[in-house]
Amino acid sequence: MLVAAAVCPCPPLLVPEVAAGAAPELDAARAACADALGVLAAAGPDRLVVLGPAEQGGHYPQGTRGSFRGFGVDLDVRLGPGDAPGPELPASLAVAAWLLERTGWDGPIEGVAVDADLPAGQCAELGAEISAGNDRIALVVMGDGSAARTLKAPGYLDDRAAPFDAEAARALGAADLSALAALDAGLARELQASGRAPWQVLASAAEGAGLDGTLLWDDAPYGVGYLVAAWS
């Protein structure tokens, strides 16, 4: 049973060591993420499941390591206590692990990488699977909005980007499950919106949970839509 969720963006630039001199530009986003994660702690979940987009789906047990060496920074993170063997965390889950280390979360935790192109129907199946059972589950849902809000954005300027992000922000802020489930996967792919699939997993996991949403941050630094929301 889902009892709370925190929605956060996943750019490695959230990590100050990666952002270097530009780190202050995302201070407000980091603060909003900390607030969203605080909502999870207040809900008292039995375990935490972290979702994040990746090129390939997969499960990562507690204690899985990640790093930011691919971004030129000698910094390691770990998904909760322990030391699990196996592949490193994908970037989105490594950012989540960094955020959670700052909050001091030390309870049971696992990571789920979501294929960024996962069809909506399969997102729904995954969400239902995650929330099944009697455990009190909280989700940390990582993902970005469009990457096409300005001429200098990674996806250049696309007039469809701002309306897409606005609807995603509205749906996340209102915990509007139907609207999230209806996000256009093809359009999200064209706009490089990596959060679409994880948000749709969240929408399915929250069915019947009666959660309310609050939008904590909505901006597009570097031309990329970054959204922070808390559901409880």
Give a quick precis of the structure:
The protein is an alpha/beta fold and 232 residues long.
Question: What would you note in describing this structure?
Answer:
It is a single chain. With 232 residues, the protein is of the alpha/beta class. The protein has a single domain, classed as Protocatechuate 4,5-dioxygenase, Chain B. 35% of the residues lie in helices and 22% in strands. It is built from eight helices and nine strands. Strands 3-6-2-7-1-9-8 form a seven-stranded mixed sheet, with helices on both faces. It has a two-stranded antiparallel sheet with strand order 4-5. A hairpin with a 6-residue loop joins strand 8 and strand 9. Helix 2 crosses helix 3 and helix 4 crosses helix 8. It is globular, with a radius of gyration of 16 Å. The two termini are 12 Å apart. The mean pLDDT is 96.
Set down the secondary structure blueprint:
Blueprint: E1 2-8, H1 16-19, H2 27-43, E2 47-54, E3 58-60, E4 65-67, E5 76-78, H3 91-103, E6 109-115, H4 120-131, E7 137-142, H5 161-174, H6 177-181, H7 185-190, H8 196-205, E8 213-219, E9 226-231
Parallel strand pairs: 1-7, 2-6, 2-7
Antiparallel strand pairs: 1-9, 3-6, 4-5, 8-9
- Count all strands and give the number: 9
- Strand residue content: 15-25%
What's the order of the H and E elements? Answer: EHHEEEEHEHEHHHHEE
Give the fraction of residues assigned to helices: 25-40%
Q: Could you please say which CATH topology applies here?
A: Protocatechuate 4,5-dioxygenase, Chain B
How far is it from the N-terminal to the C-terminal residue, by CA?
Answer: 12 Å
- CATH class wording: Alpha Beta
The major sheet is characterized as: 7 strands, mixed
Q: Could you list the spans in which at least 5 consecutive residues all have pLDDT below 50? A: none
Rg, rounded, reads 16 Å
Mean pLDDT: 96
Spatial sequence of strands, sheet with the most strands: 3-6-2-7-1-9-8
Structural class: alpha/beta
Q: What is the correct CATH architecture?
A: 3-Layer(aba) Sandwich
**Count of helical stretches:** 8
What would you call the quaternary organization?
Answer: single chain
